[in-house]
Amino acid sequence: MAYAQPTPILEVRDLHVEFDTMSGLVQGLRGVSFSVMPGETLALVGESGSGKSVTAQAVMGLIGLPGSIVSGDILWKGQSLLTPEGQKKAASLRGKSLSMVFQDPMTSLNPLMTIGAHLVEVLRRHMKLSKPQAFARGVELLEAVGITEPRRRMAQYPHEFSGGMRQRVMIALAIACEPELLIADEPTTALDVTIQAQVLDLLADLQKSMGLSIVLITHDLGIVAGLCERVAVMYAGSIVEAGSAATVFEQAEHPYTQGLIRSTPRLDDRRDRLVSIEGAPPSLLHPPKGCAFQSRCPVASRQCDTKPARQETPAGGSVSCWTPSLPAWADVAKTTEVHAR
């Protein structure tokens, strides 16, 4: 007996986003596609400028001028959010069923408002609570994210909190209306290692207790393995590889993914120094017609002048590469000679 597959809570299909600048059109996203199932955690991984945050902003409906979504679709439980009716639906979802933890809590929190005022405003707007009810719920939320003396903290201002505590406040704001999907954009940026671990543990605990789906945006592969079931690796506005976290870490298919893993510190690695990926990402003002990574790839060939098609991997993931599984970084001199132009 065949069972129907569950509908993804979020699905992004062939999304293209452009920014009209004085220098020309910047192609911020170039055909991004992925899905998130209920209760799942997906990591969007890549270096700065790869399009991770632009993807999150597009999902949240925060792409404003000079940016625009030029093609593709974003679906919430199978319903498009980009049609006129869907845009009304998206407005009702934001902050309630769909919420986001932004990168820098100090610039996201209003310095002239107390922490309590932030929480009360969100709860009154989306949950229609009275002021006393919203205040009481705010205290519960601060306690839930591990902030001590929550009632006293409600009267304090953002500058009176440490970086880790401000990030906890951002998480409290994001889960205030018990959302179904939480987008966490670099939630551990500028935090020390101990606080990073606490924030990630908090997200994992909240996911279990609330049944959250999470999209975790990061450039740090080290924080992905313990929290995420699936990984999508972004480069130059596109997803170049996607699959289960275990498979991507153990058997990366794309040379860029291999390079990211190779440049990440490991306790079992005895090398004296890490080796970075040479070169820089291409300009998205004039992206290459072929593979965007070819100028930095040690195994690039003439075939890479043509954009590679997305293909399935043996482990059930996908990769955009003409020579997937080739060990691009194991012996650079040898592989470069074999695949020389």
UniProtKB/TrEMBL annotation:
UniProt keywords, alphabetically: ATP-binding, Cell membrane, Membrane, Nucleotide-binding, Transport
One BP annotation, GO: transmembrane transport
Chief location of this protein within or outside the cell: membrane
Any one GO MF annotation of this record: ATP hydrolysis activity
Domain ABC transporter, first and last residues per copy: 10-261
GO cellular component terms attached to this protein's record: plasma membrane
Membrane topology note: Peripheral membrane protein
Keyword Hydrolase attributed: no
Localization of this protein: Cell inner membrane
UniProt xrefs under CDD domains: ABC_NikE_OppD_transporters (cd03257)
SUPFAM superfamilies associated with the record: P-loop containing nucleoside triphosphate hydrolases
Keyword Transmembrane tagged: no
Pfam families xref list: ABC_tran, oligo_HPY
Entry similarity comment: Belongs to the ABC transporter superfamily.
Protein name as annotated: Oligopeptide/dipeptide ABC transporter, ATPase subunit
Organism, scientific name: Celeribacter baekdonensis B30
